[in-house]
Amino acid sequence: MYFDNGYSGRVFIMGDRSYEESSVVIFGMPMDYTVSFRPGSRFGPNRIREVSIGLEEYSPYMDRHLEEVNYHDAGDMMFPFGNAAKSLDMIERYTEKLLVDGKFPIGLGGEHLVSWPIIRAMHKEYDDLAVIHIDAHADLREEYEGEVLSHSTPIRKACELIGPENVYSFGIRSGMREEFQYAKESGMHMSRFEVAEPLKEILPTLAGRPVYVTIDIDVLDPAYAPGTGTAEAGGISSKELLDAIQAIAGSAIRVVGCDLVEVSPAYDAGDKTAIAASKFVREMLLGWTGKK
C-alpha cells in the first residue's frame, strides 16, 4: 500500500482529477528521519496543500490557468516510520510506476533525501538524464555521522550515479570544505550564492535533454522562508526563485519530473514558507509539464 487514505483529504488546488485522466501526479513524501538539525518536514506536503487554497488558479507569470493541466494529487505516501531504506525503496517503486503509466511526477518533501530514489528511477528511464539542483546546501557528503542515508548526501549520490558532469547546482552557500573541493575537482557545475542568472547561462547547454529538477526551499533566505529545518542566512528572494522557474519553463530543456522539499510548518510563522512553496508548485505545474 503506497498511500495513507486517512490523510486530511486536502488536495493541492484543483488537484482532484482522477489518476487515470491525469498526465501529472503530485505526491507527498512525509519523511524526515535523517535530518541533522530540526525535524518536521514530514508535515510539509500537507501544509502546502492546505495553503494552496489561497492561490489564484491563473498565473500571470506563465499566462496559463490550472484548468489547462490535468493533474492528480495522490496524497501522502505511507511509510514505515523511521525506516529510511524501506521508505526510499517505496518512493523509487512508485516513481517507476508513474513513469510506466506516462505520468509527470511532482514530489513534495519531506527531507531532501527523498529526491534520491526519484533520481534513481529517472536514470533507469533516461540514459542521458541531467539534474538541476537548487539549494542552500551542497548535499555532497558521502555520509553524515557515519550514516550514508542522510539528507546531506543525495546530490553526491546523484553525481556517482549519472556522472558529476550531468549535475548542476545553484544557490549553494553552505557545506563542508571537502564538498566544495569535490564540486571543483569532479566536473560538476556549482554556482554559489545566486540562482537565476547562472542558471540562464547553463540552460542552452542542456537543450533537448531530459532534466530532473529538485528544489530545496532553504535556497530562499530565512526572511522569505523561515519554515525549514536547516535555514541558512544570505539566500535568494522568492522573486529570484520565481525567475529561475520561469527561465526553465522558457528554455529548450525537457523537464521530466521535479520535487520541492524541506518545508517544515512548525517553524513557519504565518505560513510564509508554505505559501511561497505552494506558489512555486503552481508555477512548476504550469511551466514545466507537458513539454515535448
From TrEMBL:
EC number: 3.5.3.11
Cofactors required: Mn(2+)
Pathway where it operates: Amine and polyamine biosynthesis; putrescine biosynthesis via agmatine pathway; putrescine from agmatine: step 1/1
Gene3D superfamilies (UniProt xref): Ureohydrolase domain
GO-annotated biological processes: putrescine biosynthetic process from arginine, via agmatine; spermidine biosynthetic process
The UniProt record lists the keyword S-adenosyl-L-methionine: no
Pfam families cross-referenced by the UniProt entry: Arginase
Gene Ontology MF terms in the entry: agmatinase activity; metal ion binding
Alphabetic keyword roster: Hydrolase, Manganese, Metal-binding, Polyamine biosynthesis, Putrescine biosynthesis, Spermidine biosynthesis
UniProt catalytic activity: agmatine + H2O = urea + putrescine
Record: residues binding Mn(2+): 112, 135, 137, 139, 216, 218
Record text on cofactor binding: Binds 2 manganese ions per subunit.
Protein's job: Catalyzes the formation of putrescine from agmatine.
Similarity comment: Belongs to the arginase family. Agmatinase subfamily.
Protein name: Agmatinase
Name of the coding gene: speB
